[in-house]
Amino acid sequence: MELHINIYSVSLSPHVIERLLVLNKLAKVVIEILEDDVIISECFIYKMLELRLNGIQFAIDDFGCGFNNTERLDKYKFDILKIDKKFISAIDNNISKYNLVKNIVSLSDANNFKLIAEGVEKKEEFEILRRLGVKYFQGFLFYKAMPLNKVDEIIFQMKDFVSEMS
Fold first, then answer.
1. DSSP 29
2. What is the pLDDT of residue 161?
């Protein structure tokens, strides 16, 4: 199970990194860099490397919005690309959005990114995205956002369930 955490690059203090490493022992942690994050420190690359060496992946959140663009994909070598909800919403009746997402899927495939569609709220959106080749989805169609303490509770419940099934 993956645990995606939205974070700003400047928030990656030694204390936060330590906590992320502990969480990564409970669930596979993915750090999502937000679209309005101005990455100004070259130290960020070294922090990414340290976390990657410990099995943590990085996602570019809300791709196509704010600062999250193709230049960032190349410079920071993200593992996961997340399509912003604004491209997903009403894709079932908007040919422009459909074509944009189709191109993002091609970009993702060509660069071996794991691709996640954000903000999937309708079954019709899910079906179209699946036909376009998207394999991973996030949105209210599947689960509502929740506070971190609730996530911990769910992770422990899932681990107990898996243990019982083994």
1. E
2. 57
Q: Give how far the C-alpha of residue 31 lies from the chain's centroid of Cα atoms, to the nearest Å.
A: 7
What pLDDT is recorded for position 129?
A: 97
Average pLDDT, 10 consecutive residues per value, the chain (166 residues): 86 91 91 82 86 94 78 84 93 96 95 94 95 94 75 70 59
Six-digit token pair at 102? 């189709």
39 and 7 in contact (C-beta within 8 Å)?
Answer: no
pTM for the full predicted model: 0.79
| Bridge partners of residue 109, in order along the sequence | none
Dihedral angle at the C-alpha atoms of 49, 114, 101, 127, nearest 10 degrees?
Answer: -150
Phi, psi of 54 (to 5 degrees): -100, 15
Q: 130: helix, coil or strand? A: helix
Supply the Cα-derived Rg of the chain in whole angstroms. 17
Structure tokens belonging to residue 109:
């495939």
- Asked if residue 59 lies in contact with residue 84, where contact means CB atoms within 8 angstroms, the answer is no
Neighbours of 164 (CB within 10 A): 7
Residue 104 in 3-state DSSP?
helix
The amino acid at 133: G
